[in-house]
Every structure is written in C-alpha cells, then in structure tokens.
Amino acid sequence: MTWNSFGRIFRCTTWGESHGVAIGCVVDGVPSQLSLCEADIQQFLDQRKPAQNKYTTQRKESDKVSILSGVFDGVTTGTPIALMIHNEDQRSKDYGEIAQSFRPGHADYTYHAKYGVRDYRGGGRSSARETAMRVAAGAIARKVLAPYGIIIRACMVQMGEHKIDVARFDWNACSHNPFWCPDSVMAQQWEDYLDGIRKDGSSVGAIIEVHAEHVPVGWGAPIYAKLDADLAAAFMSINAVKAVEIGDGFASAALRGEQNADEMFYTEGKVGFRSNHAGGILGGISTGQTITARFAVKPTSSILTHVESITSAGEAMQLRTKGRHDPCVGIRAVPVAEAMMACVLADHALLARSYGHPIIPTL
Amino acid sequence: MTWNSFGRIFRCTTWGESHGVAIGCVVDGVPSQLSLCEADIQQFLDQRKPAQNKYTTQRKESDKVSILSGVFDGVTTGTPIALMIHNEDQRSKDYGEIAQSFRPGHADYTYHAKYGVRDYRGGGRSSARETAMRVAAGAIARKVLAPYGIIIRACMVQMGEHKIDVARFDWNACSHNPFWCPDSVMAQQWEDYLDGIRKDGSSVGAIIEVHAEHVPVGWGAPIYAKLDADLAAAFMSINAVKAVEIGDGFASAALRGEQNADEMFYTEGKVGFRSNHAGGILGGISTGQTITARFAVKPTSSILTHVESITSAGEAMQLRTKGRHDPCVGIRAVPVAEAMMACVLADHALLARSYGHPIIPTL
Amino acid sequence: MTWNSFGRIFRCTTWGESHGVAIGCVVDGVPSQLSLCEADIQQFLDQRKPAQNKYTTQRKESDKVSILSGVFDGVTTGTPIALMIHNEDQRSKDYGEIAQSFRPGHADYTYHAKYGVRDYRGGGRSSARETAMRVAAGAIARKVLAPYGIIIRACMVQMGEHKIDVARFDWNACSHNPFWCPDSVMAQQWEDYLDGIRKDGSSVGAIIEVHAEHVPVGWGAPIYAKLDADLAAAFMSINAVKAVEIGDGFASAALRGEQNADEMFYTEGKVGFRSNHAGGILGGISTGQTITARFAVKPTSSILTHVESITSAGEAMQLRTKGRHDPCVGIRAVPVAEAMMACVLADHALLARSYGHPIIPTL
Amino acid sequence: MTWNSFGRIFRCTTWGESHGVAIGCVVDGVPSQLSLCEADIQQFLDQRKPAQNKYTTQRKESDKVSILSGVFDGVTTGTPIALMIHNEDQRSKDYGEIAQSFRPGHADYTYHAKYGVRDYRGGGRSSARETAMRVAAGAIARKVLAPYGIIIRACMVQMGEHKIDVARFDWNACSHNPFWCPDSVMAQQWEDYLDGIRKDGSSVGAIIEVHAEHVPVGWGAPIYAKLDADLAAAFMSINAVKAVEIGDGFASAALRGEQNADEMFYTEGKVGFRSNHAGGILGGISTGQTITARFAVKPTSSILTHVESITSAGEAMQLRTKGRHDPCVGIRAVPVAEAMMACVLADHALLARSYGHPIIPTL
Question: Who among D1, D29, D32 is closest to A115 (CB)?
C-alpha cells in the first residue's frame, strides 16, 4: 500500500489500524504563526466520537488527541504537525470469526487478496476509525482558512429511504438531534426508523450534504486538480462512500441549457448569480458562490443478519458479525465531510496564493 | 494553473487550447516494447471526432494524431510519448462577443477572475477539445492493459429526462445509433428529442455508464489512491461532469446492510459473488467483478437562448452564443469515459506490479 | 521510464529523442499575465546551440522554438505552455555501429538492459539534445523571477586539468571566449588545449560554476525539498554530470567550525555576512547571499579512440564512435546550468509565496 | 514548510523537533508479508546513537523505537508503518542565548526569517536528530532490498584535512574504531586530532563514502528521477551536507574520454567492466557494478569559540554555543548515509518492478 497521503501543499498523511496501539497523522505544509492547541482539534474529534448515543457504535473511545510536533509556544512553526490518538477500547476477541472469513460488502476479501495478510481486528486499516485523523487534520485546515471567513458545515439529508423535506431545511436544527439532520420533523422519524434498524441488527445508508460559504472566486487548478475533482476524490476516499455530486449533480443530466445556466448580474459593484446549479464551481474553479456537494454512504457491512460467505480456507459459510457497529455510519461521516472540505480548500487556498490568484478578487 | 497532469506511474500531461495552433499530450510511464502506431490511437479519436452527424458540433476537425517521440521501429521505447493534433477549423470570428462577456454556466467568468486574461476563442483551455488528448492517452493505456484481457466500454443511459429501459440493455446496440445508446428503442426516441433540442438552439445533459470487465482482484491503493477515488477524480475532471457514482452509488443510501451485501461463494475453485452492488470495488480495491461507474454531464452552456449575463466592463447584457456547439455534449463524452477508465486502470496495473500484488490472484 | 518531469509548482515535462521528429516540453504552473514570446526563449537557446564554433559538435541545428499553447495576445494565460523544436540535421547513418554495440561510459548498455529496445540514433533520449528544452523552460522561469531582480549566470571554471585562476575571475570575460570562461588568460590556453583534444578525436571533462544573486532570504522547503537538495538533483539530472557542490562544497570537509562560520552583522538595518562558505543556503533555505554551486561534467563518451566493448549479440569488439560530437560537452552545459538554477528558483519562488514567506524579508 | 516526505513509491515522511515530545516517521509503500520487528530497526539506530564515546555529543538518548502501525503478527501488512522515538534528555536550558540570536553557519537565521518563529531548542527541526528517522526508515528499506542480496555500507574517508590512504582501505576496519574509518592507521591519527578539536571547543568537517554492491542492472528512471539525481538529493538533504559525487565525481572533470570509459567485456556469459569511473550509474540507470558515492559534511556550527553575530532584536553580539555538540558530526552521518542509499534503492526496486525492468537481467 502506498498513498496514505492527500493534498498537494497542505498535505496530510494518516496511519494506524482500528485495534493497533494508536492512530495518527502528519499534517505538512501548514504555514507558521497560526495559533494551535489540542483543544482546537479536540472539539471536532468530539463531534465524531463513537458511543455518544445509541445510534452509533458502542465502542468507548475518548479519542484524546496529542500534538507531538510542529507547535511551539502555542503557534505553528511551519514544521510538520504530528497528531496521535491512542486506541483504548480494543475488544479484539469480538473479531475471531472475521479472521478466517470475509464479510460481504466489506474490504476483508480485497485486502486479503491484495496483501495476503491483514489485521482483521476491527477492519484494521479499512476501519472507519481512520477518519478520526481526517477530522483532526480538518481542524488544522480550518486555521488556514480562518482569514477568509469561510463557513463549512455538513448535514445528513437522507437516511435509508427517508429524505428530508428541503422546505424545512434549517442549519440550526442539526445540533438538536443525533443525526445532524437539518429537518427537525424528519429527525424525529429517523429516531424510530434507526432504532428499528439497530434492533434488527441491520444497518442503513445515508446521504450527506456539505456546504462551504464565502469561498473566494478563483480557487481551483484546472485541468486535473479541479476543485470539484479534488472534492470528488476526497469524499470518495472516505470509507463506504459510493457516490459524489457537486451542485445539481445527477439532476443536471435532466436539465436543458437555459435551465442549468446560473444567470449573472451586477449588484453594488459585485457579481451576483440568480441561481447555483453549478454548486459554486465552474471549470474546476470556485465562482464565489456557496460550494455544495453531496455524497452517499452505503450501509455498514457488519450486520447481525446471516449472509452467505466463504472462508479463506475455501469453505462456504453463513456469516454474522457480532462486534459493536454503527447502524448508520453516515452519522459519523458528517464531521468527516466538513473536514475533507476544509482540507481540500486549505490546499487550494495555499495554491491560489502561490500564483497570486485570484487576479480580480471582485470583478 | 498547474496540474495539467494525471496519473502516478502511467502519467499523462495535456496542453493546448481549442483555437490555438495545436493540442497535445505527453504520456509518461509507458513500459517499453509495446507495439504502437498512430492508427492504434486514431481509431479511438475517430469515435470522439465532432461533426459525425447532426447531433454533435459541426466544427470540422479530422483530429489526425502524430506520434512525436517514444516509439521506435513500431514499439514503445519506455521514453515519454508525445502526441499532437493540429487544430484546423478555427472559426474564431464566432467568438467576438464572448471575449468581453461571460456565458452563464461556463468557465468564462472563473478563468477571467482567476487569471485576469483568457483565450476566449472557443473556450480556450476549458473547451471539450481538451478531451481529445485523454482519448489518445486512453488508447495507449489500453496497450498497457492488453495482457489482462480487460474489456472497457461505455454508453449513454440517460439523455435529458429520458432514461433507457435497463431490461433492454444491450452493448451491441451502442454502435447502431449516434448516441452510444444500449437501448435501441430509446435511441429512436432520442433522435426526435435531441433534434428538437437542437432546433431550439438549446442543449441537454446526459448520464454515461462505463464498465471494465475482467479487472483482476487486488488493484487499487488505499487510503487516498483508492481505485474509486481515482475514478471519481478522473471522471469529475472531464469538462461538464457534475456527479460520479460507483456500483449502486446514490441508490445504496436507501439500502439496508443485508441488501447491499454482495454475497460470496466458491465455484470451481474461484470466488463468486451473488450480486455487484459494490460496482467491483471494496475498500478502494478491485474485487475481480466488473467495475461499474456512472457520471452526469450537464447541458452545454453555449446556447442560442438569451440568458442574463454581464460584461467584464461592468455592464448587464443578454447573452446568446452563436458558435457551433454540441446539443448534447454527453455523446462525445462516451469515448472519453472509456479513456479515463483505461488510464486509471493502467496506472493501477503498474502500481500493483510494483508491489507484486495481488498476492493471491485467485483465492 | 517515467519522471520526465521536474519541479513542484513550476513544473516542466520534456520529451523527444535526438533523431526523432522533434523535441519539446510542457511548462506547467506558470502564472498568468507574464509577457512571453518566442524571441524571449530563442535568445537562450541560441547560447546553447551546437556548431557555433569548432569546439562544439558540428551538427547543424537552428533550434528554432515554437510556442504551441499557453500564450495569448503576447501574455501567458496560466495554462500549460507547450514548446517544440523540430530536429533538422539527423545524419542517422553515422550511428549504424552503435545500434548493435555499447559505447563504454555511455547509457547505451543501461538503456538496452532496462528497456530491451532503444532509439540508438544519436543517443536517443539520453542525448545532450534533451537539455535544449531545459534551456527553453529556463527562459520562462526567468520571467517568473523577473520581479525579484535575481541575476543568474554560469561559467566554466575548469577544463580537463586546467583550472582558472580565481584572482582573474571576471564575469565580463565570459562572453569574449567560446568557453564561457571568466579568466581571459586561461581561455586562451584552453583554445590550444581543446584543439588538441579535438584533433586527437578525444574529449575532456569540465567544471561549471553557477551563481544566483539577489535571491531573497527564506526560499527553500526543508527537509526534503531543501533548496540545495533540489539544486543537487537538478544539476545531477543533466547528462554527464557526476558531482555537485554548494558553497565551499567538498572543501568544507577540511574546515573547522570557526573557519566555516559566515559571521553576521548589521549594516544599515540589514543583515550582512563576512563570508559565504555556505553558498547562500543554510538549512535548505536561502540566506539572501549569492547562491553558488558547481558541478562536474565528465568527458563525452563518444570518441574516435578505440575502446574495448561488446555487442548485444554477445561478441567482444573494439569500438570507435564516428559521429559528430562535442570534445568538451561542458561548454554547452553552461546555459543549461543557468536554466536549471532558474527553474529551481522559480519553483521555490511560487512555493514561498504560497506560505507568505519570508515572514521577515529584511530582519 | 512542506515536503517532509521523500521517495515515490517507498515513501518516508518524518516529523519532530530535537527537544519536542518525540520524533517519528511514517513509512508508506512497504510491500506486505515482510518480517519486521522493532529489533530489526533498533540495531541500526544504535549505530547512530549519540554519546557512544567522547567523540560524539554527550546527549544521552536511548533512541528506543516503537512500531505503532503497519505490522501484524510479525509481518508487514502493506499499510503505513508509523515509528516513534520519545525524546529523553532535553536539557533545554542550554539553549537560552540561541533563542534570541543566530549561530553563524546554522539554520537559525534562515528559519527565523522564513517562518518568523522557531523552536530554538537544540535546533528544533533543523537538528541532526531528524536523521534518526532516516536510519529507522533505512532499516525497513533493507527489508525490501533483502531478496536482491544488495550490500550497503558506508565509511568516513576524510576528517578535516586528513584523508585515508586508499591503499589501506579495508571495510573490516570500520567497526574497530569510533569513526567508521576503513584505514586503521589513519583512525589512530584521527583520535588525537579529534580530541584536540573537541578540547578546543571547535568542530571539523568530513567526507563520507557509501557503496551499494550487487544492485541489479536497470534500476533508475531517466530523465528527472535518475538514480544519481535521487541519490544527490537524498544526501544533500542531510543536515550539514554541502557536496555529493558519484563515481569519480569532480575528478572526472580532469579526465579524457578514453580514461573515463569503463571498458566492457563478456565473462562467463555476463557483462564485465574493466573499471568503474561511472560509480555504477550510466544515464541515471544502474550498470550492475557497485554504486559508489561520496558526500561532504561541513563542521558543526555550534562551537565554543566566539564568533561575530547578531540578535533578532537588531544588536551585534559575540556568540559562543555552550550546549553538548558533536565535534565531528560526520561520524554519525555514516549510518545515515547507508540509510539514504537503502531508501533510494528500495524506491527504485519497486519502480523497476512496476515496469518489469530490467528486461534483460543479464545480457
């Protein structure tokens, strides 16, 4: 395996397995003289932490982060910032059966075939636990973005077959339910729904939406580091994600040119748009509008239901995963979505600066 | 701008503007001793060529490719392969108005704001013309993949609001209609539909589906160069693409764990799967099943309809784009889809070899 | 082969063989709105051009460069700049014997063993001809550096066993002799010396020195993209280069700490240094002093003298290379030295800008 | 700062400051199923450890390494391997004066000017301590190289003005003196010499030579990842290194073509060479001969002698560095030299495999 790093200038390398000694990351490319302490990072990790309610895995992890380098007297020094979280609740005995067989829908089989060996405990490197370090890196990315006044926030807009009602969309609702749901009516329905899924020992997928407001016009690097291409890779690299869209996304296929055109006008010397079908990105470059993206998270493959599978010894078997798992891992993907958006934008912020872009901040 | 390159080991760098002297690319990382001639590449370029029927732009381009380096006595030498296509039909006078104003939904404004200058003729670097070089690189990628017996093919499964009927899906149908449509009944309907769009001076979006059969198990590089993350970036980097999904994609959000699990079994000493919700990729690594992906192409922003816009001089205006354009640029995205799949797979084929992966070709 | 590119943000990809159709490069990452025309590049290519006098190869190449993309209305657009030079005087028949045998000291054997095939005509990709594109890229790099008032110049300080007298060092002398020699007395001796080498059908090595004045303090990216590490790689990547040193280089091994320390003082509110043993780089970062580097070029391996060698068919033979060659290829390495210095500095200029460095331009 | 990583496929990222909590690295790209334990790494760290005799700094560091990820049941899993060493003897009070002033010849000033802040304790990130993680990574690289039977070893061939006598060169001598000196007679002289330097509170430079035997023909990636260019960057990135040469290096400038040619012959069906002026690399590709390189280490800038310097507050001052330092830091560079050679070769071993190179292992 290689490529446990992402980003070009703001660059993050993650390491660690679900049930190893620790997980960690190295965040390279952070400008100097930014104030940074562990609490700045911890607040975001706490949002992603498991076992905060009955709707997420009951694994108890305090996810207490340590800064091991790159910060001196409370500010970044420009050197690489190493972060580490010790693994605590490693109930590895739960994973006996998985050692010799493959969970359908999980990376067990592909890791086995590729590497010939795998740390089967808790999914090892393919565990959602890796995303904790993305959240930590995202906290540092937000420091890089702070001067721009960018607001990044994500929410869950669909759980299983149940979509929110867009008319009721309210960012303020997100913090008042355990699902980061912007529709408080739907959030109530989800409680019963997910409780049922959980009791069945099953799991369910979700759709996450993430916005970045106040991104300056002119960020992005065509052709092959387009802002949307980087976001697509960033979100698709999150475990269990199977789809990504920007702006109208798949719905734009059904539109005609005049419907899709975000008409432009001037207002008080600035450029305005009548709509945002493009999701704030044209030609791979930010337009200055809110960047909007959505991604789909498939249901967790670790379920109590018996499914047909095989062992590495060549036998057929019926598999049932007994460990502690997330009935809807999409919930914990919400802070991860924000973090990946922050990391991609921080990278492009630094890149844009290197070229002196945008040339024309406001037209 | 930077990052006009993609790929890690099999690496392609493209250059050129729609109405410049020429467009070209450098394909680096090609193993030596592969047979290669211009005709090998030309056949794929001919599939993408404009003006083949009334449904694509009437710009006449023979798109004749030259190999300038890296091939000697009919075989690759391991040195970089430079390809070039001269631009022929550069009717630049069509673009006068665009020079001073911005097409809503196009990259005109973002390029202008980012760079302070742009080659407005035909969209310059943001033109779909850039994709010709992806198709050329894809032809070379197929040479790298040849020993594996991989079959790559793409088709259009939705035009505007009209989706194909999956029950009628037939790859053989694709070459018998001008839309690469696998549903011959729907293809007929699309003729009238797109003719209407064209006559209206409008445009329409589309959804493209691409398959790669017989990809070995064990290709892909978790965590940040997952096969699906690389595909997402590759497709999203194509002009006008706004969404990408792998396997069940967005539909997987609505599934429960037991529905999404692709159950496994042994058959004649090999691993088999009862379904392919995963689209052939788990944990970022190929499963050995057919890799399936879809992406959405938005409608071309160059339309004859008047839309509200602005000039770079600070005036409001009504814009109408008179040049020759594609009523459904998705049609020409089909060969591009195949090419990007081929390039990503070629890159991962070489990467997998460097590690001696897969360890266990068949379990 | 891969990695025909160098640079991180200011990034150059070269292609082409000595006796192919053409050679070229793509320069990516160039900021927009820099004035650029072919003459800006041609002036530097003319310095490196062969057959300018009897001391370089008699191959006649006008080395006329074309800009194929990335420039519009006389300024860079921020898109990749493709450059191309057609090969003219390809007297390939000279190379018949080389096709089946290996010149000792040349890359013939290693290319053959690595790739199993090679374009033997004129050394193919391993020819010094590739360096023309470095010179072209260097001309663009100088445009990036122009606002900083940086002066880059190189000279030859040793030819064979004959070193210049440092006491006679005068940059102005360089343009008055065919060797870029800063010591006009030594330049005269070299004329006879090299004439003798040439008539013997032999060749001789050289040492090139390159300076960059007025580089701001604070450029460079420790630890693994140190300015000196990047320069070392850049110079060592030039054909025939076998050694690189910065500042006192190998001589610093013989110094004691107090001898090597470049003492510091203030003068008119600025930092001054009593000496420059460090060659303008400390900790991989520029000090604001003149950056000084030297590299050694080995003698051309293509000589008329018979040397013991082998054929690819497994036979011993005596080899004698009849083509037109440089008796001292170091001469033509002088403009290449300047170009590589310019490219490395342009890359670090853009990088430094991305971080807002230096924080303290003058202390 | 960014680029705290090196290598393309076998890729190492280091982090940590001299007097921070810990130092560490992440080694990415390691193939799976290699046996690896902490003792495999520790043995090499012990060679570099300070305070092993009176000739190195008296800082007491056990340099005990921990493997935090990437190894399971005693073998590598293909996931990133995180290594960490806790810092123990951080006598930071020694560094009070350095906080406000700049050691001439040290990176104090450049870091200050670049970042506006620095961890002055023990040199922070610019400390030789960073090289411990290179040695650790090198131990893993050796595991990758094990199947090839490659022997890597380094020695010190010059200390200050005193060079070894090449006629007395004996690898076996190296382990019998505290200097890794291959000339046992010279080693005795160095003892007195360095003792004098040490008592004077001064320091002295050195030259290190490193060999890699049995490297297969065909490793290396022209043009810009030539094996020698990569080695040059790798060695030049080591703190205090100012010069690098391959094979005859600077001496090759004085040679004529026929002297420099390593004549070739066949012996028992294999290719042989009459000499090795090239240092085992031609055209950036290994020839199959022993790879030989040398680099110069300047004298440590931390000395007890007073030197003229300045404070960051704008005052002139006389500086004298009181901490514990290496009178000849070149001694501890010897294991680092081996490690960097191993890392570069491991990277190229994996790269070569990806292309199926060499095509012709023995001609």
Answer: D32
